[in-house]
Amino acid sequence: MSDDSAKSVDGVIGTHVHLITYEKMDWATEALPAHVPADDLKKLRLAAGEHLAAMLTTAYLGIAPVAVDIHGGVDLGYRVADLDSDVLTSLLGRNGVEFADFEVKSIPGGFREHNAAASRALKRGEEPNTHWSTVVSANDVVEAAQPMIAKAAKQLRDKSSPDRARVVFIVSHFFDRPYVECLDPVIAHTLTAPMLPDEVDAVWVFFAPSHLVVWPAVEQHWSQLLLGSFEEDGAAPEVDFGMELLQHYEGLFLERAGIDGPSPFYYRVGTGEYPTAVDAE
Asked: Which tens digits make up the pLDDT trace of 238-258?
């Protein structure tokens, strides 16, 4: 093992993780359309990643939501009274509560607007413009999330109540903020503490398309939410070329829920050559 590899392993030691199986994630893509009315699921804003938040919270909590943004309420509501207290504390920042309310916020960025404009250009037979992004660190993403955490906290204060666990779910699109740790299997140990308003019991951050972490205020540490198999020879499902594993499950969920609208998070990454200035001329 190289010195750099050893340092990387040493950094991960002591990191808290929550692991669910591939089967549990597959179950979540079926449980949502089975337990939530189709019209409610179609209200989830794809551009903001609300459908991803619904899929991921359902999978890791192991229960389907009882409410999805009905009549201007919270984005996702869960009845958690029957969950194990350790799960409640680690994922929701509270135990002894009957309900948990999630408010979903997407960090602003230019890619989703560019993606929509590119689609319109292609339909007109025109060449879409190029989207440029600056590579950042995962901690830069957490810092960029702070205004959205504060905004979500205000909405939770207005829509929820102190007797419920109040959780913020942040979504960051990779093409808005590509982060240098994207190929690392675990990133929780690299993150600094977020600033949580008093109204917020926990914050989840999804670094689309592949990393999910949670900070419960009561525990004061980041945990990594992982997906895998408990079997020694367990294999991940086959994924289309150029896509990440969670994108595979996003596609299943959209199909099973009958949601037709295009998702800016559901894409393939390929390689190609960008023309030089001389070639362009």
From this structure: 888 888 999 999 999 999 999
Secondary structure, 3-state, 177-201: CCECCCCCCCCHHHCCCCCCCCCCC
H-helix or E-strand containing 168? strand 165-172
Phi, psi (rounded to 5 degrees) for 92: -120, -10
- Residue 3, SS3? helix
Q: How far apart, in whole angstroms, are the C-alpha atoms of residue 115 and residue 109? A: 11
- C-beta neighbour count of 53 within 10 angstroms: 23
Tokens 């009845």 identify what position?
Answer: 79
Spatial separation of the C-alpha atoms in residues 219 and 154, rounded to whole Å: 22
pLDDT 10s digits, 113-141? 645 555 565 567 766 666 566 889 999 99
Do 204 and 213 contact (CB within 8 A), yes or no?
yes
Strands (E) in 22-118, as ranges, are: 76-79, 99-106
CA distance 259 to 265: 14
The widest CA-to-CA distance across the chain, in whole angstroms, is: 67
Q: List the structure tokens of 5.
A: 């590899």
Q: What is the pTM of this model?
A: 0.87
